[in-house]
Amino acid sequence: MELKEIKNFLHSKPGYLKEGGKRLRRVLLAKGFTSTIAMCKEAIRQVNAERKEEALVKRLTGERVLIYDIETSYNIVKAWRTGYNLTIQPGDILHERAIICVSYKWLGEDQVYNLQWDKNQDDKFLLEQFIEVLNEADVIVAHNGDRYDIKFIKTRALKHGLPMLINYPQFDTLKVAKKKFMFNSNKLDYIAKFLGYGGKIKTDMSLWDGVILEKSQAAMDKMVEYCDEDVRQLEKVYQDLVSWELPKHHVGVLNGATKQTSPIAGGTNLKHVKKVTTNRGTVKHIMKDKDNGRLFEMSDTNYRKYLLVQ
């Protein structure tokens, strides 16, 4: 097991950081992964340093935003012929699709982490680790995440009997792109290039064939590289789109402050932009968080309370 893989495991299961190198090696061996005590100790040292940096980022930003992407295998089915308008019944599935790998990073950090299915193409161990990562996030970000990624993750977790939270606050860049803009294409590759970024790594189905059918390590390495770059591109697109959507939750309240703070960063450096009403006469106030330039809504009651302490 490579050092990077051990670190990914520790980031998802931080409890083992206190167990030491010998204990960690025994745990990995029990799961079928080989490593040395020295490598386990080095992984623990590096992850402890990285987690201190993560804690600093959270104090500065007020929330932990997880950027992620998954790559999945295709179903292997039996069919009598090729062509259009074919009916493939569930009983025709010879091998169910699964999660090949997942790449993720925390907003504002450089490191991209990656988890892969095991040598038997089983994604249970991958899911055990990534679910713990998901549970640490305040917001998760994916492209088409609402309709695909998180639902597929939950489906595979159900298959393996793994518990997950019922809901995850998610910023779906595809949904925001469709709702707020009129791009020529809503694909991540197009939007990233439209905004001046490099776009996705070019690939084709032969890469999936190499990973799934041939079990090629070279193909898997390329798949991981492809997935990692998707996450980097997604982070850039998210940072451009996030200001066009209302925040998913209230960071101020999340961190113990009152509702009269910014839901984006939890501060009180606010500017009143506009008073608006609903068709039923409910008054709301459009506010601007001057620390980051983003807009949000505040109820009339909370706005009046905010004025009292200014």
> In the CATH hierarchy, what is the superfamily of the largest domain?
Ribonuclease H-like superfamily/Ribonuclease H
Major sheet, described briefly?
5 strands, mixed
Give the percentage of residues in beta strands.
Answer: 15-25%
- From the 3D structure, determine the CATH topology of the largest domain: Nucleotidyltransferase, domain 5
Distance between the termini: 56 Å
- Average pLDDT reading: 90
Secondary structure class reads alpha+beta
Count of domain modules: 3
Spatial ordering of strands, largest sheet: 5-4-1-6-7
Name of the top-level CATH class of the largest domain: Alpha Beta
- One letter per element, helices H and strands E, the order comes to HHHEEEEEHEHEHHHHHEEEH
Counting DSSP E segments of at least 2 residues, the number of strands comes to 10
Q: Estimate percent helicity.
A: 40-55%
The helix count comes to 11
Low-confidence stretches: none
| CATH level-two architecture of the largest domain | 2-Layer Sandwich
Subunit arrangement of the protein: single chain
| Gyration radius, rounded | 22 Å
